[in-house]
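Format notes (please read before filing issues)

Several people have asked whether sequences and structure tokens are stored in separate files. They are not. Every record keeps both together, in the order shown below: the sequence lines, then the token lines. Line labels are part of the format and must not be stripped during preprocessing.
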Amino acid sequence: MEPIIGYDQSQQWVLNSILALITLGIALELRVADFIAVLRQPRAILVGAITQLFLLPALTWVLISLVPMHPGIALGLLMAACCPGGGMSNFFTSLARGNVALSVSMTAISSSIAMLMLPINFLFWASLNAETNALLRAFDIDRGEFILNLLMILLVPLLAGLFIRQHWAGFAQGLMKPLRVFSLLALITFVLAGLGGNLQLFNLVMAPVLLLVTVHNGMALGCGYLMSTIGGLTPFDRRAITLEVGIQNNGLGLAIIFAFFDGNGHMALVAAWWGIWHLVSGSLVAWLFSRKPLEPI
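Then the structure lines:
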């Protein structure tokens, strides 16, 4: 039996609104200066972007293809891998005494590009695995319509947020925190409302979800560190890239799961645990990095 976090289908517009608000909150944090900064350190940005947007989803596909798991869990891991980097990566990079400016620029770039690539990236890798592809068909999702709908929900608030931040920076600054809090609380309300009738099923799948998400997040952090090392980046930049690749915006992923995948329990548990665990792993990695202070180069 497939665990479903149920909600009234008439509330679909509410879920889409929450998804749009989450995207708007991300966009309000982006600055034109963050994109201009790419010109000053293109190699570091390129290494980080390739790792986060292409290599991590590819390695996730390898993981779900080699390790036996429920296809819903596999789709949840793919969704996590395709989401943009989370804003907490900037905070953890600061704690790690890494290149915060690079981290901020990477978040801006990955958030902007991933908003456009997320549906295409997710469907591409999911279609290459027989079990996840079969589950996608079971959801009866029109892939072209899914891409267009998600692009509209993500792209419009992304552009609106960039416009507001550029022309009314003070207003954007004041709006960011309450918008983040409101959208997160609204999403949590949907999750908690659907848990009641599914607790037994969630107990059955929780152990593999905890293990696989922990392994997946460790893989993301290790991938960021390895690729930045191979790319010849300084230890100062390496810390930023490691944490940027390992910290994902799974609130966005969870909202997408509710809006387009009927609140699938396996997928939702993966996204929810990713959102919790990467705070633990990010804190630990930042602490380990901070034990060896570095001077900017």
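For reference, the curators noted about this record: The radius of gyration is 18 Å. Residues 9-290 form a domain with the Na+/H+ antiporter like fold fold (CATH 1.20.1530.20).
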